Amino acid sequence: MAYAATKSTLVSMTKTFSELAMKKGIRVNAVAPGPVWTPRVASTKPEEKIKSFGQNTALERAAMPVGQAAVFVFLASDDASYVTGEIYGATFGRMPY
Predict the structure, then answer these.
(1) Which residues contact 46 (CB under 8 A, 6 or more apart)?
(2) Does the active-site annotation cover 97?
(3) What pLDDT, on a 0 to 100 scale, did the predictor assign at position 97?
(4) Which of 22, 36, 48, 51 has its CA 20 to 30 Å from the CA of residue 82?
(5) Which pLDDT does position 23 carry in this prediction?
(6) Which helix (H) or strand (E) is 90 found in, with range?
(7) For position 31, what pLDDT does the model report?
(8) Is 63 inside any structural domain?
(9) Residues of the chain predicted below pLDDT 70
(10) How much is the pLDDT for 96?
(11) 3-class DSSP assignment, residue 47
(12) Which pLDDT does position 95 carry in this prediction?
């Protein structure tokens, strides 16, 4: 319940801050990543969870951090000068249900 509430709050904040900031030429976007291999994943999950980590995505694997970087670089670039108030799902096709 706390995760869902936090997630919906971040979506709402992104949209609201974007509306407020765009008048000052500031863009506000968010990235909602799916499963990503990080040192924390390997050190905090039980062995059986590590073996199946990311298999619930369309590509049946987790992302590497470098694979997510392009989304952030795009959003920080002039190529995204028209993008604000968006939530980019970088989820490997993982559905939210």
Answers:
(1) none
(2) no
(3) 45
(4) 36
(5) 92
(6) strand 87-90
(7) 94
(8) yes
(9) 95-97
(10) 55
(11) helix
(12) 61
* Domain span at 74: 2-90
Residue 39 lies inside a defined structural domain of this protein: yes
Q: Tokens at residue 4, please?
A: 């869902």
Give the span between the Cα atoms of 12 and 26, in whole angstroms.
17
Give the tokens for residue 50: 């590590």
Three state DSSP letters for 2-45:
HHHHHHHHHHHHHHHHHHHHHHHCCCCCEEEECCECCHHHHHHC
> What is the domain-level CATH number for residue 27?
3.40.50.720
Q: Which of the following is catalytic: 3, 82, 88, 97?
A: 3
Q: Domain total for the chain?
A: 1
Instruction: Find out whether 42 and 31 touch, Cβ atoms under 8 Å.
Output: no
Nearest-angstrom CA–CA distance, 85 and 19: 7
Tokens standing for residue 91: 């989820």
